[in-house]
Amino acid sequence: MEIRSTTDDDLDVFVDAVHAAFGRFPETPAESGGGLWWSAFEMDRNLVAVTPEGLPVGTAGAYSFELTLPGEVVVPVAGVTAVGVAPSHRRRGVLSALMRRQLADVRARGEAISVLLASEAVIYRRFGYGPATFTQKLSVPRRQADFAVPRAESTDSGTVELLRRAECGDLLEEVYDAYRRAQPGALSRPHRWWAAKAGQPPITAAPRHIAVHRDADGVPDGYASYAVGDPDNTLTVDEVIAADDAVFSALARFVLGHDLVTEVVFKHVPPGHPLRWQLTDLRACRLKDETDWLWVRLLDVPRALATRGWFADGELVLDVDDPFLGERGRHLLTVRDGKAECVPTDREPDLSLDVSDLGSVYLGGTPPSTLVRAGHVRAHHTDAAARADALFRTERVPHCVHWF
Predict the structure, then answer these.
(1) The domain 136-289 belongs to what CATH superfamily?
(2) Is 64 annotated as a binding residue?
(3) Sign of torsion, CA 153 158 159 163?
(4) Was 96 annotated as part of a binding site?
(5) Does residue 404 carry a catalytic annotation?
(6) Which residue among 339, 344, 355, 389 is buried most deeply as judged by most CB within 10 Å?
(7) Choice among 124, 129, 134, 176 that is catalytic
(8) How many CB atoms lie within 10 A of CB 191?
(9) pLDDT tens across 295-327, in order?
(10) Separation CA 27–CA 32 (nearest Å)
């Protein structure tokens, strides 16, 4: 079996192979709302596994994204996608070979971090990925959607206007780009995605209403993409992109006040969001689903730790095991005034952990003490977990809405 890079000439073969791995057929532009999810592929970053007879039996791709880290630090990352193995060649080492080659290619490009969305939660830990952001789906019955009178003064002095998706492509791109640069865990949406209408609404041209929020100066600083579906008249919000909580609240009020709707479903809301507390009926806001979203894999531990922003001072010795790549390192992390230094050390460790667990705590969405309590991370001192929690804490919950 050969693992080789693809070129533009391999697009049809690659697309057919990845669809076959999942038992599906490629849709047409009409079926997808005018854009194909794979139309933003970077073929020079894709890999195909080929048998000696020339049969493609496995695929793995990557996009060139930027990831926002705590402290509003933006770094290049590989966004892994289109990973699949033909049913006839599973459990023969094809996937491991693809993952090993892909990680080598990511390192060669100088990217310290790789990310993905996992189709199954049991697959990617063995390759060093850990779930780093989570997202919730919330629903509110329209008849229970009244907002309570706020006991604190409102900070929003903006307005909301209604547009159609076809009218505001550039506006959506600009608002999302400003949002993702300040939101830890968010990924960039390169212009080629919007131009090709790749991915999911509102990137695609599928019909959507867009509620656009403008600040007091008329500058767009948020939007909600939604549609009302038959037969039950449920209003489904694809995503709410907002500069702050006040903008989110204004957009939520707008969609929750929609007439002739039985229920409003928000598909992507960060954990701990205050929406339920803003309603007169606390129980009206129901959790319909909660799932992991962005998985993170560190390929250069010292560089990744030194790059993100920090909000507490301290020291921590991390003994990090990377069994898939056969690597192990002990690192002294020192943080002063929001800046970190991470160097090799022979000091006794505070925490011993797998690289996948480090990926889970890296963005601040999962406290290290949670993984200590779960038995995944070993704390060598009684105060080690608490010190790690204080160090990895972030001021904003990491969240990602981008699908790839």
Answers:
(1) Gcn5-related N-acetyltransferase (GNAT) (3.40.630.30)
(2) no
(3) negative
(4) yes
(5) yes
(6) 355
(7) 124
(8) 12
(9) 999 999 999 999 999 999 999 999 999 999 999
(10) 7
